[in-house]
Amino acid sequence: MTHATAEPAAGPDATAATPHLLDVRDLHVEFHTAEGLSKVINGVSYHLDPGETLAVLGESGSGKSVTAQAIMGILDTPPAVIRSGQILYQGRDLLTISEEARRQVRGKEIAMIFQDALSALNPVFPVGWQIAETLRVREGLSRADARRRAVELMELVKIPAARERISDYPHQFSGGMRQRVMIAMSLAMKPRVLIADEPTTALDVTVQAQIMDLLADLRRELNMGMILITHDLGVVADVADRIAVMYAGRIIEHADVRSLYKSPAHPYTKGLLESIPRMDVRGRKLATIKGLPPNLMDIPAGCPFHPRCPYAQQVCREVVPPEIPVGAPGRYSACHFAKEVHDGRLG
Q: Are residues 292 and 227 in the same domain?
């Protein structure tokens, strides 16, 4: 991985004091392409504690998945360059350790569920073999022991008749069952952090609810910290503890779930909430956020949301908004008028 910084790292075993299980600090990631420099992550900071779920929300292209890939150490370099920042896991900066040490963390301590299970699973091998192979390679289990453990994992994620289905191939499973297989694979090494990247994409509403309930149950049972990446506020209300809203590679609002749903403090978050379909409102057009997310090769001056913001003033066009504390400790919004939006004094 390419990690360019202005100052040399303190060394492969460098640590930093942090009370959190995972702590991302001021992360900047750029992509160098034939079209130019794309500033994909622009100072992202968030943390995760054992047994809690952090939902990371935003439209496509906001930087949610790239941040997760940086945590996992699976960014393609080039074109990606981690320009600066820290990713602290149990106080140890993953950006300064050796690649061999990073491989020990990847999958074993921090695991990831990818959004397209059909593409992530190998179509020519039975699902049980794919789960068991991880255990054989990483844990040194015998073929028989790995197979038994694969059955246990499939039962853990509530795949019916796991013992009989262990020899089935991915195409023989429904979309929801394939996603359960992916979850079983991610849990094989008993990770302490689970990153779920759009885990309900392309699933119908009933199956989405089942997958989200399963992830919530597993988090509680295993006391994992979970990062849930999604663009849909509707799927996180019952499972997340905190929400970080991303826009143009930056977290623009951070709050606990109840506070954010009750009184958003950023116009973008407010727009996302208003665009959720509601059963109690009929006969009206669905609210939308006008315009498109910015081109990350040409991010607007000032607040990157200002071209789409109904409340934008001149200061928004000229000055990047700081993170303003709003309400309870730990809650903030990167908006010049955060308190006015939070209190409902702007629209």
A: no
Weakest mean pLDDT among 85-89, 170-174, 188-192, 203-207: 203-207
- Same domain flag for 227 and 313: no
How far apart are the C-alpha atoms of 137 and 306, rounded to whole Å? 50
- Contact between 149 and 188 (Cβ < 8 Å): yes
Per-residue b/e over 125-135, b at no fewer than 16 CB within 10 Å?
Answer: ebbbbbbbbbb
Alpha-carbon separation of residue 335 from 43, 213, 265, 306 (angstroms): 15, 33, 8, 10
Retrieve residue 337's tokens.
Answer: 């008028």
Same structural domain, 282 and 207: no
User: For residue 238, what pLDDT band results from cuts at 50, 70 and 90?
Assistant: confident
Q: 60: burial class by Cβ within 10 Å (0-12, 13-18, 19+)?
A: exposed
**What is the torsion angle, in degrees rounded to the nearest 10, for the CA atoms of residue 219, residue 224, residue 229 and residue 235?**
20
Domain count, the chain: 2
> Which residue's entry shows tokens 């989200």?
212
Whole-number percent of the chain with pLDDT over 90: 73
Last residue of a domain, one of 185, 217, 240: 240
* CB of 24 closer than 8 Å to CB of 250: no
E strands in 49-79: 53-57
Residue 315 pairs in a beta bridge with none
DSSP 284-316: SPPP---S-PPPTTSPPSS-TTGGG-TT--HHH
Tell me what percent of the residues of the chain surpass a pLDDT of 70.
93
Residues 260-291 pLDDT 10s: 999 999 999 999 998 877 666 676 777 889 99
The CATH number linked to 85 is 3.40.50.300
Torsion (CA) 274, 320, 63, 286 in degrees, nearest 10: 20
In a domain, residue 16? The reply is no
Domain boundary among 205, 240, 275: 240
Domain enclosing residue 219, as ranges: 22-240
